[in-house]
């Protein structure tokens, strides 16, 4: 067990010259981290009046290769879960091996499909009968967290609008095309979750992402999961089209489109409030979400029994859930900006 001195010590600050202060660092810590005399260090001043000290970016060491050993008895879903867990934990190279026996063809297909469908910036660089090696090529400077978040939001917003359009046209093929877009949203979700996990473990990456403190990673994890869920509901709307017995009536289409537009506007504005750190806009969205819930309840109450009534109810619920998940995003905005709207005594 580590002693308190292994993780926390108090040192006195001393002035050196007219405008510089110095503080000594424990030799044991320096040796364990691998810092040498003359190495560059980076100091970050955090918003919570703390400072973070970490080695220069050039000294950052990539994580080692992760090796996953599988057998022919393993379930394909179990293998996929292990690969995703390693990907999220920031490893640059993932090797799947099956010692002494061949990897089953169905396992090989599942792994390759997972890489293609769910993992941004990855390639299979080696593959033989007993091993598959996955290389993660994408680095943060090439696809920043902010850019990935914007793309994920735009894809999800477009998914919802196109799902409603396909529903109004009773176009099954269009709906299936929209539903497939969910895979792309999931890819961005995994990439950003991986980035957040790495940022918690690496102060330099946290700084690159322009996050003020590690707790911000928890807030953004909530945002990402809510965007992913909104995309899931858009995909559900698109998938429900094939179960319609008849085209929807014009009056019903108009009601669904109106509620949908209100919900997606709340979603778009919740992301805008997040990027602008605007608590006033966030409060306005909260009121809008309440109105959407009331409208959805009224529409539900007014639905007459028909061949399509069950599908219509499911669609209305999908739209309401979109608004409610947007409400979760604005809660993050308010939590992050509360210090700017209160006074401390």
From TrEMBL:
It comes from Candidatus Nitrosotenuis uzonensis. This is Putative Phosphate uptake regulator, PhoU. The lineage of its organism: Archaea, Nitrososphaerota, Candidatus Nitrosotenuis. Coiled coil: none annotated. InterPro entries: PhoU, PhoU-like_sf, PhoU_dom, SpoVT-AbrB_dom. SMART domains: SpoVT_AbrB. PANTHER family: PHOSPHATE-SPECIFIC TRANSPORT SYSTEM ACCESSORY PROTEIN PHOU (PTHR42930), PHOU DOMAIN-CONTAINING PROTEIN (PTHR42930:SF2). Pfam families: MazE_antitoxin, PhoU. GO terms for biological process: intracellular phosphate ion homeostasis; negative regulation of phosphate metabolic process. GO terms for molecular function: DNA binding. Residues 15-61 form the SpoVT-AbrB domain.
């Amino acid at each position: 067990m580590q002693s308190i001195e292994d993780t926390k010590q108090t040192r006195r600050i001393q002035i050196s010259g007219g405008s510089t202060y110095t503080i000594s660092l424990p030799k044991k810590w320096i040796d364990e981290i691998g810092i040498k005399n003359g190495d560059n260090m980076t100091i970050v001043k955090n918003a919570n009046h703390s400072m973070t000290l970490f080695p220069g970016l050039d000294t950052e060491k990539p994580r080692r290769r992760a090796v996953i050993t599988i057998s022919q008895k393993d379930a394909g879903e179990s293998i996929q879960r292990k690969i995703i867990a390693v990907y999220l934990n920031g490893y640059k190279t993932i090797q799947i091996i099956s010692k002494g026996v061949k990897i089953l063809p169905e396992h090989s297909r599942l792994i390759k499909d997972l890489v293609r469908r769910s993992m941004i910036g990855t390639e299979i660089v080696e593959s033989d009968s007993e091993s598959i090696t996955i290389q993660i090529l994408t680095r943060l400077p090439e696809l920043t967290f902010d850019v990935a978040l914007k793309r994920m939001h735009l894809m999800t917003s477009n998914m919802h609008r196109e799902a409603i359009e396909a529903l109004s046209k009773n176009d099954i093929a269009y709906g299936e095309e929209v539903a497939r877009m969910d895979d792309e949203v999931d890819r961005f979700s995994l990439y950003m979750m991986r980035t957040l996990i790495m940022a918690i473990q690496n102060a330099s990456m946290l700084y690159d992402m322009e996050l003020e403190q590690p707790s911000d990673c928890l807030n953004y994890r909530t945002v990402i999961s809510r965007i992913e869920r909104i995309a899931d509901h858009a995909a559900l709307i698109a998938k429900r089209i094939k179960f319609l017995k008849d085209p929807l009536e014009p009056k019903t289409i108009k009601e669904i489109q109106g509620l949908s537009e209100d919900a997606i506007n709340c979603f778009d504005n919740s992301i805008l409030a997040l990027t602008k750190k605007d608590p006033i806009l966030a409060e306005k969205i909260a009121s809008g979400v309440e109105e959407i819930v009331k409208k959805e309840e009224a529409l539900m109450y007014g639905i007459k029994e028909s061949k399509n009534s069950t599908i219509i109810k499911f669609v209305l619920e999908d739209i309401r859930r979109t608004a409610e998940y947007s409400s979760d995003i604005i809660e993050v905005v308010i939590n992050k900006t509360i210090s700017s709207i209160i006074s401390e005594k």
